[in-house]
């Protein structure tokens, strides 16, 4: 019995040491991975990296991690140019907030210089003040003496964006709220007015839509993930992303 008790104590001690070693190793790996992602994506700040699953050491020995979660607070995505229906130039980049990605089946090289996830899904937000940069926020002439501009974007409820359009005619101004749908088409976020109010008598639909409707391309997201869906939310347009063979580093 005494020998059995000693054996159990040894097993418990060794198990505890293994857990400690495993947690130390995963913490080190998370820090290293965060630094590599920051370098690869040229981020201004170091992202949060969390390696899930236990034990970590056996996963590391196999060369593949089951589940890695990455959080990037602010990401500047390349856009080319955003355009309205009349081809207005937009910003060269757009800020993506609170990008959270869940990577499955992450394989890494023997020297840990590169890592690729089999699949990835995630969420993020494009703040309304960022998306406004793609709209016609400067006064634009519709007809002689009549100008219009988008002066604000906000949550319109039920997944819609409220686009505030200010119309100036004969020295008087009036702001009209226009409920709009937001959709994704490839790598482009599109905002399209659902029902146009009678902003100015006899204005052509296409002239009004040159102000109310606009789009923003997002050509590059971390690791090559792609836009999947978009929906208007309280603080901005909420997006989901997905990808396969997503490069995390190297």
Describe this structure in words.
The protein has 250 residues and is α+β, with helices and mostly antiparallel strands. 24% of the residues lie in helices and 49% in strands. The chain contains 4 helices and 13 strands. A hairpin with a 6-residue loop joins strand 4 and strand 5 (115-127). The longest helix is centred in the first third of the chain and has 40 residues, at 2-41. The chain starts with a helix and ends with a strand. The model is unreliable at 10-15 and 82-88 (pLDDT under 50). This is DUF2993 domain-containing protein.
How would you state the average pLDDT, rounded? 83
* Strand-pairing-aware structural class: alpha+beta
Residues in β-strands, percent: over 45%
Q: Please trace the helix and strand order, writing H or E for each element.
A: HEHEEEEHEEEEEHEEE
Oligomer: single chain
The order of strands across the largest sheet is 3-11-10-9-8-7-6
- Helix percentage range: 10-25%
Please mark out the parts with pLDDT under 50 across 5 or more consecutive residues, or reply none.
10-15, 82-88
Question: Looking at the structure, what is the overall shape?
Answer: elongated
The end-to-end distance, rounded to whole angstroms, is: 55 Å
Q: Give the count of helical stretches.
A: 4
- Rg (C-alpha, Å): 25 Å
Q: What is the count of β-strands?
A: 13
Report the major sheet. 7 strands, antiparallel
Protein name: DUF2993 domain-containing protein
InterPro entries: DUF2993
Organism: Streptomyces guryensis
Pfam family, one: LmeA
């Amino acid at each position: 019995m005494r020998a059995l008790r000693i054996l159990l104590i040894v097993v418990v001690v060794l198990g505890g040491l293994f857990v400690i070693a495993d947690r130390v190793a995963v913490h080190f790996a998370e820090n290293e991975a965060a630094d590599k992602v920051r370098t690869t994506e040229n981020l201004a700040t170091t992202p949060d990296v969390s390696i899930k699953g236990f034990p970590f050491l056996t996963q590391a020995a196999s060369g593949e991690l089951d589940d890695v979660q990455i959080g990037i607070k602010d990401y500047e995505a390349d856009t080319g140019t955003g355009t309205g229906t009349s081809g207005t130039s937009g910003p060269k980049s757009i800020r993506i907030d609170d990008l959270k990605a869940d990577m499955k089946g992450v394989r890494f090289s023997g020297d840990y210089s590169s890592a690729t996830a089999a699949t990835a899904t995630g969420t993020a937000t494009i703040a309304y003040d960022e998306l406004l940069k793609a709209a016609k926020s400067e006064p634009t002439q519709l007809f002689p003496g009549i100008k219009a501009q988008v002066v604000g974007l906000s949550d319109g409820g039920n997944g819609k964006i409220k686009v505030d359009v200010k119309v100036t005619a004969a020295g008087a101004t009036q702001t009209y709220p226009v409920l709009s749908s937001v959709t994704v088409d490839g790598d482009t976020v599109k905002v399209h007015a659902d029902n146009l109010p009678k902003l100015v008598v006899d204005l052509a639909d296409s002239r009004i839509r040159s102000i109310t409707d606009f789009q923003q391309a997002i050509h590059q997201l971390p690791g090559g993930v792609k836009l999947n869906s978009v929906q208007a939310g309280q603080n901005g347009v909420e997006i989901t992303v997905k990808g396969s063979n997503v490069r995390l580093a190297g």
